[in-house]
UniProtKB/TrEMBL annotation, chain A:
<dbReference type="Pfam" id="PF04909">
    <property type="entry name" value="Amidohydro_2"/>
</dbReference>
<dbReference type="GO" id="GO:0019748">
    <property type="term" value="P:secondary metabolic process"/>
</dbReference>
<dbReference type="GO" id="GO:0016831">
    <property type="term" value="F:carboxy-lyase activity"/>
</dbReference>
<dbReference type="InterPro" id="IPR032466">
    <property type="entry name" value="Metal_Hydrolase"/>
</dbReference>
<keyword id="KW-0456">Lyase</keyword>
<protein>
    <recommendedName>
        <fullName>Amidohydrolase-related domain-containing protein</fullName>
    </recommendedName>
</protein>
<dbReference type="InterPro" id="IPR006680">
    <property type="entry name" value="Amidohydro-rel"/>
</dbReference>
<feature type="domain" description="Amidohydrolase-related">
    <location>
        <begin position="110"/>
        <end position="369"/>
    </location>
</feature>
<dbReference type="GO" id="GO:0005737">
    <property type="term" value="C:cytoplasm"/>
</dbReference>
UniProtKB/TrEMBL annotation, chain B:
<feature type="region of interest" description="Disordered">
    <location>
        <begin position="1"/>
        <end position="31"/>
    </location>
</feature>
<dbReference type="Pfam" id="PF00355">
    <property type="entry name" value="Rieske"/>
</dbReference>
<feature type="domain" description="Rieske">
    <location>
        <begin position="20"/>
        <end position="131"/>
    </location>
</feature>
<keyword id="KW-0408">Iron</keyword>
<dbReference type="GO" id="GO:0051213">
    <property type="term" value="F:dioxygenase activity"/>
</dbReference>
<feature type="compositionally biased region" description="Low complexity">
    <location>
        <begin position="1"/>
        <end position="12"/>
    </location>
</feature>
<dbReference type="InterPro" id="IPR017941">
    <property type="entry name" value="Rieske_2Fe-2S"/>
</dbReference>
<feature type="compositionally biased region" description="Basic and acidic residues">
    <location>
        <begin position="14"/>
        <end position="25"/>
    </location>
</feature>
<keyword id="KW-0223">Dioxygenase</keyword>
Length: 370, 133
């Protein structure tokens, strides 16, 4: 038997060090409240007053019902070093960077000063009870985007702590978005400290920010580059979940002007989530991607990666573009595509029938031309 | 995992049949409970739910999680009036790793026939729970 060369990997054991860059703690606010500093410790822990149930959680609830939320599926708790070591045994990492769960919602905490205080408390707890570099347990210091100057101070304070290897911004709930100059103190502090910034969203925070995201997108470029595919994904995900293609099985949809690569991603992402949440889309009788394949079509413009044949040809295959893609120019809009932008690439790997489909025969099937 | 889960090794020595494997005394497996056991190197869960016994592989076809150690509940469906209804209560187990749901009566994933937990015959005879394969 031939021996393995140094570059040949047969199993995880051949990889050397495995670093898990997003291993979650499932901290509760009661874990970190004892680590609050003044005045927030007095503010939140001294009083036994009636909070009408509101202050029971200072992190806004997103209100979404997941299978774990509803007690349909159980999930591991990771609130101690022992819990972490159990998880290490399963995942098999040598080093991990611990990321929070509840504090992914820190950016949604309504009281800005308290948010900064909670970040401090979380980091105190992280350093006192969680981080253990001998066991490979590292962490990201969390900062509150509501208070960038305080956040920068928090970075300075934690920068030299053993085991702090990153700073995490709960990016799903930032307002305004992260290009705004108000965040530059955080960036300066992290750059100075040599700490990378982890951006991590939480499912429940992002949708609440969409209206204000529009407000903070003060330039056209970021809006145009992201919003077409974001809005399509949002609509398609909702239509699929509510069973629209199942309710209207003879109806076809044409998804336009959003580029290509997000579409095969979205098909697989929907399938991935759906397999663990079938109960949330009870009307569906097949995979989301199968409905997309059967009743939805994508039009080509604006073709991204037209100078990258390996990319474009593979994207084309990943959603059976020979059956599901239709040429569009978008003329005279300023990002219109020349008619042969696709052809010049695709002709190298796709046959005449595939190209005739893209350029007209699929459209002839979809649209009721007289 | 679930406090309703206990692990044991099925005893085949007291049987003169090698296709039938003793799992437990029937009173060790009350309604709503389950036993996860090893038979011939396979991890098999035996459920007693809705008055019936069901045996399934405890290996999730998704990423190898202990599918049958998850919570047992029902699932949502839509009735003829387009209203959400709860159905198959006590008949759906959700894998604790990623929440993939399987019907314990036939092992099928609720969303796709491509994924199915192998099922085995399970029954009670003379106060003893058996799995047969």
């Amino acid at each position: 038997m031939a021996s393995a060369t140094p570059d040949q990997v047969r199993s995880l054991d051949d990889l050397g060090t495995i670093v898990d860059t997003d291993f979650h703690l499932t901290e509760r606010q009661e874990d970190i409240f004892p680590y609050l500093e003044s005045p927030f410790d007095e503010m939140l822990t001294a009083s036994g007053g009636d909070d009408y149930g509101y202050l029971g959680r200072v992190y806004p609830a997103h209100g979404m019902v997941y299978s774990v939320t509803m007690g349909k599926a159980d999930s591991e708790t990771v609130r101690t070093r022992e819990d972490i070591l159990e998880g290490r045994d399963l995942i098999g990492w040598d080093k991990a960077i611990a990321t929070p769960t509840q504090n992914l919602y820190l950016g949604a905490v309504h009281h800005d000063d308290l948010a900064a205080g909670l970040a401090t408390a979380y980091n105190n707890w992280l350093l006192d009870e969680i981080i253990d570099t001998d066991e490979g347990i590292h962490g990201a210091a969390v900062v509150a985007p509501q208070k960038p100057v305080k956040a920068a101070e928090e970075v300075d304070r934690r920068a030299d702590e053993d085991g702090i290897v990153a700073v995490m911004i709960p990016s799903g709930s930032v307002d305004p978005t992260l290009g705004n100059e108000r965040y530059y103190p955080i960036y300066e502090a992290c750059e100075r400290a040599g700490l990378p910034i982890k951006m991590h969203n939480a499912g429940g925070t992002m949708m609440t920010r969409f209206p204000s995201t529009w407000k903070s997108m003060t330039r056209a470029l970021p809006v145009h580059a992201t919003s077409h595919n974001m809005m399509h994904q949002t609509n398609l995900a909702d239509m699929l979940t509510q069973g629209v293609p199942e309710r209207f099985p003879d109806l076809e949809f044409i998804v336009q002007e959003s580029g290509l690569g997000w579409y095969p991603y979205f098909m697989r992402r929907m399938d991935h989530d759906y397999m663990g949440a079938k109960w949330d889309a009870p009307l569906l009788e097949k995979l989301p991607s199968e409905y997309l394949d059967d009743q939805f079509y994508l039009t080509s413009q604006p073709v991204e990666g037209a100078d990258d044949p390996a990319y474009l040809n593979s994207v084309m295959r990943l959603f059976d573009g020979d059956e599901n893609l239709m040429f569009s120019s978008d003329y005279p809009h300023f990002d219109f595509d020349n008619t042969d932008a696709l052809l010049r690439i695709l002709r190298s790997e796709f046959d005449g029938q595939a190209l005739r489909n893209v350029y007209g025969e699929t459209a002839a099937d979809v649209y009721p031309f007289p | 995992m679930s406090e309703h889960t206990s692990t044991s090794t099925a005893d085949t020595t007291d049987s003169d049949r090698d296709d039938r494997h003793r799992v437990a005394d029937a009173d060790e497996l009350p309604e709503g409970d389950r036993i996860v056991t090893a038979i011939d190197g396979r991890e098999i869960a035996v459920f007693h739910t809705n008055g019936e016994y069901h045996a399934l592989s405890n290996y999730c076809p998704h990423q190898g999680g202990p599918a049958c150690e998850g919570l047992l509940s029902g699932t949502l469906a839509v009735d003829g009036d387009d209203e959400l209804i709860w159905e198959r209560d006590g008949g759906i187990v959700a894998c604790p790793w990623h929440g993939w749901e399987f019907d314990v009566t036939d092992g099928r994933h609720t969303a796709s026939d491509k994924y199915r937990l192998p099922v085995y015959e399970a029954y009670v005879e003379d106060g003893t729970v058996y799995v047969e394969f």
